[in-house]
What does this fold into?
Amino acid sequence: MTASSMKDESTSSKHRKRKRQRNPKPSKEEPIETKLKIQRDTKICKNNQRGGSSSASSKRPKPSNFLDTLRERLSGGQFRMLNEKLYTCSGQEALDYFKEDPEMFDMYHTGYQQQMTNWPELPVNSIIEWLLSRSSSLVVADFGCGDARIAKSVKNKVFSFDLVSKNPSVIACDMSNTSLESSSVDVAVFCLSLMGTNYSSYIKEAHRVLRPSGMLLIAEVKSRFDPNNGGADPKDFVKAVCDLGFTSVLKDFSNKMFILLHFKKKLNSNEKKIKWPELKACLYKRR
Ligand code: SAH
It folds into this structure.
């Protein structure tokens, strides 16, 4: 082997190593972001290889492609930052933040929708199916409604709440403090929305606005309830909700990505001291 071929070999093995580090095997925990990132990084890596050589300059990506890639990376980064923020601050802080900069809310939701395109099944659809199988006279409160998909898909009267209102049917507020009357709704929904550090106050608000025997439906990211991986013990969470004044009626862990928990409001409230478990943030890491 010549010196130069040795150099080539070591350079290309280094290069392979670098490539491997950039594109590690996706873990089960963060499949969505990882997939997207691998596609993006592969593009960037190819672009870098082309840069520098004059003969290759003709093969350089068109500026629009390059700018698109750059934009995509920037918005991906901003989405991850906002997502982490929502999981690590209180609802009131999140409300204040988006009030100051509503564009950030659009940024968050563009990223969120992109993430959702990679989920094999959307939890919100399970909730819609559940509602469609019941009387449309049930009044629903959708806490953290996002694009208000529930209100758009069922005939029921739906009160949709989120931090920012992007359409007139959405009520902008911190959902720990809604404008609903006590005991005025039949179904309270939290679909992937128990994000704030004060998430228990959202469930307390749902308890306040639900009629006795009303239903509380919760869909959450499964990894947040995996005690072997820093998540909460689902038993502790279910117990805390029950201590607040609910009976557990469904615990569905069959989906790979999310869990479904259904509760019925008890006729009489408890005055117990409740121990709410901390819920792990659902972060999407950049690789
Ligand atoms: N339920 C929708 C959106 C889930 S994303 C769906 O399943 O598609 C979580 C949503 O909860 C975001 O839109 C976020 O803005 C909202 N959210 C988080 N904390 C909130 C709070 N304190 N008050 C109101 N909305 C909140």
Notes: The pocket of S-adenosyl-L-homocysteine is lined by residues 86, 91, 94, 112, 124, 144-146, 149, 161-163, 174-175, 191-193, 195-196 (CB under 6 Å). The CA atoms of residues 26 and 32 lie 9 Å apart. The chain has ten helices and seven strands.
